[in-house]
Amino acid sequence: MQTELQSDIIFTKSLPNDLKTIAEKVINNKRINDEECLLLFEKAGLGFLGILSNLARERKNGNNTYFNRNFHVEPTNICKNHCKFCSYRRLEGQEGSWEYSIDDIENIAKKYTDRPVTEVHIVGGVHPKRDLYYYCDMISRVKNILPKVHVKAFTAVELDFMIKKAGLSIEQGLKKLKEFGLDSIPGGGAEIFDETIRKEICPDKTSSEQWLKIHETAHGLNIPTNATILYGHIENYSHRVDHMNRLRNLQDKTHGFNSFIPLKFRRINNKMSYLSEVSVVEDLKNYAISRIYLDNFDHIKAYWPMIGKNITQLSLSFGVDDIDGTIDDTTKIYSMAGAQDQNPSLSVDEIVKLIKETNRIPVERDTLYKTLKIY
Ligand code: V47
Ligand code: SF4
C-alpha cells in the first residue's frame, strides 16, 4: 500500500503500466530484468529516470560524491591493436608516437613525492615488444618512489597481451604483478561485449569472454577492478543491456568490481569520425539506467575529463556518485579524441566547488572508497 502511494505521488497517473511496474520495483529495492532495462532505454523520460536513479543513488551513497587525488601515467601510445574508435594509437616511429623509458616514468613519479596524491592510474597502448617483466619493473620502481600511492594499472587488454607474451597463465601473471606492487585494475578495454559489434569496432582486441575472465581471476586474487562501457557509437540499446547483464552476473559471483564507468564515444581523429556524438540527454539516460540496473555495483562514476564539468554536475542527479579525480593534466586519451578540456586538471578546491554547487557532499576517498576527508 505504502509503495503504491509513494509512486502515485511521484509519478503521474498517465504513466504507462510497464514503466509503473519498473518504478514499483526500484522503489521496493527489487532488481529489474533485461526486458525492463531495455524498456527504460526505449520509453522512459529523463524526469522519470532522474527520480528513480537518484533514489537508487541516495540509498547506496546518500548525498556523498566521491573524488580522489590522482594522476595518470600513459607509458606509450604505440599499440598493436587497431580499434576504430581510437584517436590515440600510433605506430612505432610514427609522428605523434611516444614511448617513455622506465627512467622517464620514475621522473614523472618523482614530481609527486611531495604532493598528497593517493593513486596513480597507469594505462596505455599494447606495445608489441613489452612483456609482463617489463611492467613488473615499471610498477615496482613507481612504488619505490611513491610507497603509499595505490597503483591502479593496465586494462585487461594490456594484461592479456603482456601475460601471454611472458608465457604465463592469467592467474600466474596477475599474482606476479601483485607481488611487484599492482593494487587494482582499471575498467578499460571492455568497450561493448556483444561479439558482432566488438568485431566491428575493435577487431583484434581481447575477447569479451577473456576480458571477463581476467577480471574474475583478479577478483579471486583479491585484486579489485573497475568496469567500463563505451557507448554512443554503432551499438544499440540491447547491446548496452547485454553488456551490463554480463557485468551484473560476474559481480553477483565475485563482488570484486568497485565502480562502473560509462565512457561516451568521442569522434575526433579516429576511423569512426563519420558518426555524430550522442546528446547530453543520452548521457544522462545512460548514467541513470546503469545506476538502476547495476544494483550490485556500489558506485557509478562520471569521468569528468571525457564529458566535461557541466555534464558531470548534471550526472550527479542521474545516479552518479563519483567523479574520478584531480588528474593533473596527465592523460591524453580524451583530449586526442575531441574532449573539450585539452589539459584536464582540477584542484581539490575546484572539485569541491563543482560538487557543492549541486548540493551534494564532497568526499575525498582513496581508490577503495575509504573516506579520507569530508568537505
Ligand atoms: O577502453 C578510447 C576508451 C578507455 C575513445 O577504471 C574512448 O577508473 C571515448 O578505461 N571515445 C580507457 N572513449 C580509459 C578507461 C578509464 C578511464 C577513466 C577511469 C577508469 C577507471 C578507466 O578509453 C578504453 C576505451 O573504451 N576510449 N578511445 C574515444 N574515442
Ligand atoms: Fe590500442 Fe587501446 Fe587504442 Fe585499442 S583503444 S588501439 S587497444 S590504445
Describe, in plain words, how this protein is organized in 3D.
Strands 8-1-9-10 form a four-stranded mixed β-sheet. Strands 2-3-4 form a three-stranded parallel β-sheet, covered by helices on one side. The protein has a three-stranded parallel β-sheet with strand order 5-6-7. The two termini are 39 Å apart. The chain is globular and about 65 Å long. The chain has helices at 2-10, 17-27, 34-43, 46-61, 102-110, 132-145, 156-165, 170-179, 195-201, 208-220, 237-254, 280-293, 304-315, 348-356; strands at residues 64-68, 70-73, 119-122, 150-153, 225-231, 257-264, 299-300, 322-325, 361-365, 371-374. It has a single domain (60-365), classed as TIM Barrel. With 375 residues, it is α/β, with parallel strands linked by helices. α1 (2-10) packs across α2 (17-27), α3 runs antiparallel to α12 and α4 (46-61) packs across α12 (280-293). The model has no long low-confidence stretch (mean pLDDT 95). A hairpin with a 5-residue loop joins β9 (361-365) and β10. It is built from 14 helices and ten strands. Helices cover 43% and strands 13% of the residues. It binds ligand V47 and iron/sulfur cluster. Ligand V47 binds at residues 85-87, 155, 186-189, 191, 226, 228, 230, 261, 263, 265-266, 270, 303, 324, 333, 337.
